[in-house]
Structures are given as structure tokens and as C-alpha cells.
Amino acid sequence: MYGLTFNGKHSYNDFGIYLESKSLQAPSKKKIKVDVPFMNSTYDFSTIGSGGEIVYNQRDIVVKFGISSRNKETLYSVYSDVLQWLLDIGKSQLIFDDINDYYFLAEVESITSFEEVLRFGKFEAKFIAEPFKISIDYVGDDIWDTFNFLEDITQYNEFDIIGTKLIKLYNIGRAVAPIITVNSNMSIIIGGKSYNLQVGDNNIFGLKLQTGDNWITINGNGHIKISFKKVRL
Prior knowledge:
The chain has 233 residues and is mostly beta strands. The protein has helices spanning 11-15, 72-87, and strands at residues 4-6, 9-10, 18-24, 33-35, 42-44, 59-68, 92-96, 102-117, 120-135, 158-171, 179-182, 186-190, 193-197, 200-202, 212-227, 231-232.
């Protein structure tokens, strides 16, 4: 039965409640504007601190659930369990069955509009989520069950390097910081900048894979893996 997973549990499989509808609101842009005297416009400082990237506010996600039970006593017992599941936690992964290759990092802000009709009940849950959805799997893992034929492409993200090698990685989402794992010291050049890599996992401040093609020159000898996830609106 169609539903959602949150706080490690599924709405129908674990509680027997029905997801009747959902509304995913688009996040609004976070704007910082300053009026200028004697001018017909304003200065927009919204992207100065983000290196030119557009920044967004959190987004609202509203879902409507239905509860079917044998009697009123069972109805309110299930409703109590559901309230504890949804409200008794902060931010957690929110995964919808029909968008199961992504998760939203979200928190339930409120439960509203509980309606009781005989042994049936309905209510709304309002989630406050980070503006972007994040892929469950890393790009390049190519897990068949979650492969999205509309947007995913098959590409390698692991390479054996002997000397110098030029590679290309395609990022369908917004700019994202990768984790670069090497088994020997290496260096890379991307976007005209050079970065040194140490053995193990490297999280390099300021290094991001941009949307679209990313050409990377790798210098060294050994094995390298570049891990990143899709981040999309």
C-alpha cells in the first residue's frame, strides 16, 4: 500500500494508515535586499556569502492520512501511536514511496485537523523540510532498484591512476561537495584549481562538482573514488 517512510517506519506497513494525499511546496528564495535612496531599484546581496549560489528557505510538505479501525478504542490507540512516531523526533529522513530514490530531511511541525467519523479518522501532518531532496544512493553505484531512467546516467566514479588521467563526471543536480577517497597521495585539478589528496577520505573545503560536466585531471599512482549524491529541488 502506497505511503511514506519517516523516523525509520512506514505509514502503512507499521501503522496501517493510508496516505490520501501530499503537497510538496516549492521553497522560496532567500533574498537580502537593500533599498538605495534616490534609485528606482535595490541592491541584492543574497548570493554574496554563498559564492554566487542561490539560497533557499525551508519548504512545507503537507500530507493527509486516513485511519481505518475496528472501533473507536482502536482508532485512538492507533492515533496515539502515530502521534508519537511523527512528533517525538526532530529532523529525520522522509521518503515517499513514489519518490523512493530521494529523501527529504524533514521534521513534523504540527498535526492538525483530526476528524472522527464513526470508526474512521483523518488528519493532516505538516512537515518543515530542507529545501533540497537528496538521493538515497551515491552517483555511480547504479543500483538497479532505484535507477531513475528519466535522469540517471551510467558512469564510473572509481579509477586506477598511473601518472596522469583526465576524467569526466556528470552532475545532474546542483553544485555538491564530493568525498574523494584515495589509497595513495595524489593531486587533482578541477575548475582551474589544484588540490592535494591524502590517503583516505578527503572532504575539501570549497571544492564542488558543478551542474553538468566536470572535467578532472588526476595526478598520481593508485586508486581513486569520487563519491557524491544528487541534490535537487
